[in-house]
Amino acid sequence: MNPWFAGIPLALIITILLAGGALWLLRRRRGAGIKVMLCVNGLIMAGALALLAAAFAAAPASASGGAAGTAVSMATDGSDSSSAALIGAAIAVAGSSIGAAIAVAYTGSAALAAMSERPEIFGRAMVVVGLAEGIAIYGLIISIILIGQA
Description:
Layout: H1 3-28, H2 30-57, H3 66-76, H4 79-117, H5 122-149
Helix pairs in contact: 1-2, 4-5
C-alpha cells in the first residue's frame, strides 16, 4: 500500500482535532481563536500542497510489473480522450451547479420578498426559481452526453 494513502486517515484525524481545538478557543477567546484558526488553515493548506507535490513527483507504475502493471496499462489505454471527456463532464456539472446556486440565491430571496408583500404571486415566483434551477439540469445533461462519448 502506498504510504500516502495510509497517511490520509491520520491527516484527517489531526485536521479534525486541530479545527475542533481552534473552534473551542474561538468561543473562549475571540482574538486568540482567530489567530489559531488562521494558523490551522495555513497548516491544512501547506499539507494539501505537500500532498499535491508528492502526487506530481511520484513515478508512474511500470507496465511490466505483474498483475498491478497489467491493470495499470489496461486502465490507461485510450485514456487521453476519455479523461478529457470526464474532466469536461466534471467542469460542466460543477460550473452549472455553482451558477444555479447563485441564481437560486438571488431569485429565491427576491421571490420571498415579493411574496411577503403579495402572497398571491407564489406560483409566478416559484416558476422563476425553477427556471434558475434548470441551469444545473442543463449541466447534468451535458455531462451525461460527455460521459457517453468517453
